[in-house]
Specification:
The protein is of the alpha/beta class and about 500 residues long. Helices cover about 35% and strands about 25% of the residues.
Length: about 500
């Protein structure tokens, strides 16, 4: 055993004990977080507007602070972006994580000196829990790759901004710098296909032991490695035994990955977002990810089937149940209050509290991390139709992750009443409208992770036949505008 492996095991043991101390006292841990963030934000503009000085209990908080999404919080965020201090959190943020918005273009999520360390520690601790449970630490002697966005940052009113993964790249611990790949210069390449080619060249002859990234992006890397080496990735990297991922569901990719690697490898799932690092897989034996209750985030949960009622009940950690779909609501030490991030979770364990990400509160596509929502596809279609004579009866959209040829794409199933004269131009118009609305989708097209969308015509009454086949014809039943899998798509193709 190398000295580095020995030290990693000792560090892992220490972190495991610290984690267990708060995980064994979840309600007290969350109460402490609640009291701390309310106290620190009491004199901010948001705290004054919502009478934080008179909040002593969660009941007080839920009465004074309504549930909000980004659009509802935007009036405060805009003031922070303009450089104003003490608005949502004391002082100014360290960074803005720039993400795709739903109705207002880019979103600027604040990262503060209080919140930033938890983004770094959570990813580290996920690996340390793996070491503690499995005893496997030899990988720390090899090379590790983290496929991520460019670390080049912009500046807005004295505050740096960029993609979260690019910001995090600036916080890699010194003891990992020698092991970390790719080089900073390669990481700064904007075009994804060019970047992956450069990463392949840099890593091909290295002893890669840990590989991390969004599955769709890592898949492209693996495919290029296999093409160059004419052998499975697991033979190129004989000591590669740990894959770390987050952002999208890995299951659709798992069989493809095992084929590309040539064998099974252990994996660790993460639940990070610009708004906070919420959970990580702490055990290879248990289902779900450990919810991080001590990371400066106070959690609330609303049952998804009650979410759109007039006054849905807001549950705290001590009130949740197993296998119930909850909308995740957060208040954080970065100044997000009663904030709906849009994700739904289910608890797989209450001792300790572990969750799985069950989806979004609305239909969506995020097979590649693009977070496409219903409003975007409806607007894109309307814009593409414009003043033409095109008429449609129904449509739905699904990802095609494993096409027989070329890059993956979004497949639009459309039943036309009046068809477009130029189908290629019509598809192009929809694609352009989507790219204008959704920066993640645009990034994937520009980076050649996705090809432009494909329109597939559905036969007359095809959607009706589909609904009939599943026993949902008529009434208030509707075709989902978006699906994150191929269930509907595959049935439509059979019609």
């Amino acid at each position: 055993m190398s000295l580095k492996s020995f030290l990693a095991k000792q560090f892992a043991k220490s972190i495991y004990k610290k984690t267990k101390s708060w995980a064994d006292n979840p309600i007290e841990t969350q109460q402490k977080v609640f009291e701390d963030i309310i106290r620190q934000a009491k004199n901010t503009q948001f705290g004054i507007d919502h009478h934080f000085d008179s909040i002593n209990t969660f009941h007080d908080f839920s009465k004074k602070v309504p549930i909000r999404d980004y659009e509802a919080l935007k009036q405060y965020v805009d003031r922070v972006v303009q450089g104003e201090e003490n608005v949502l959190w004391k002082g100014k943020p360290l960074y803005f994580a720039k993400t795709s918005g739903t109705t207002s273009g880019a979103k600027y999520i604040p990262l503060t000196k209080e919140s930033m360390p938890f983004h770094i520690e959570a990813a580290r601790n996920a690996i340390l829990h793996y070491i503690h449970e499995t005893g496997n630490a030899d990988f720390v002697n090899g090379k590790m790759i983290f496929l991520q966005g460019s670390p080049i940052l912009e500046e807005k009113n004295g505050i740096q901004l960029g993609r979260l993964s690019g910001i995090v790249a600036h916080f890699v611990p010194k003891y990992l710098q020698k092991n970390r790949m790719p080089t900073f210069e390669t990481n700064c390449i904007e075009d994804w296909e060019t970047k992956v080619d450069a990463i392949v060249e840099e890593t091909f002859h290295e002893d890669m032991t840990v590989i991390s990234g969004i599955p769709s992006w890592v898949q492209m890397y693996f495919e290029k490695l296999q093409q160059k080496g004419a052998k499975p990735v697991g033979e190129l990297f004989k000591n590669f035994n740990l894959f770390i991922y987050g952002g999208v569901n890995f299951e659709p990719y798992r069989a493809k990955f095992e084929n590309l690697i040539g064998r099974k490898v252990d994996s660790i799932e993460l639940f990070p977002a610009s708004e906070g690092f919420f959970a990580y897989q702490d055990s290879q034996k248990e289902k779900g990810m450990l919810l991080l209750l001590n990371s400066g985030i106070f959690y609330e949960f609303i049952k998804s089937d009650e979410f759109f009622t007039e006054s849905p009940r807001r549950y705290t950690i001590g009130e949740v149940e197993l296998n119930v779909n909850y909308v995740l609501i957060i208040s954080t030490n970065a100044g997000l209050w009663g904030y709906n991030i849009g994700d739904t979770v289910q608890f797989t364990s209450l001792k300790p509290y572990r969750v799985i990400v069950s989806g979004r509160i609305k239909h969506f596509i995020s097979a590649f991390g693009e977070h496409v929502i219903g409003k975007e596809v409806e607007h894109a279609l309307k814009q593409a139709m414009g003043n033409t004579s095109i008429q449609i009866n129904e449509f739905t959209v699904a990802p095609q992750i494993t096409p027989s040829d070329g890059l993956p794409y979004h497949e639009w199933f459309i039943e036309f009443e009046n068809e477009p004269e130029n189908e290629v131009a019509f598809a192009e118009a929809i694609d352009n409208a989507m790219r204008t609305q959704n920066t993640y989708y645009d990034d994937l097209i520009v980076g050649k992770v996705l090809q432009k969308l494909v329109v597939t015509k559905v036969a007359k009454n095809g959607f009706q036949e589909y609904m009939k086949s599943i026993g949902k014809l008529g009434g208030q039943n509707k075709i989902p505008r978006l699906s994150n899998d191929r269930t509907i798509a595959d049935l439509l193709k059979r019609e």
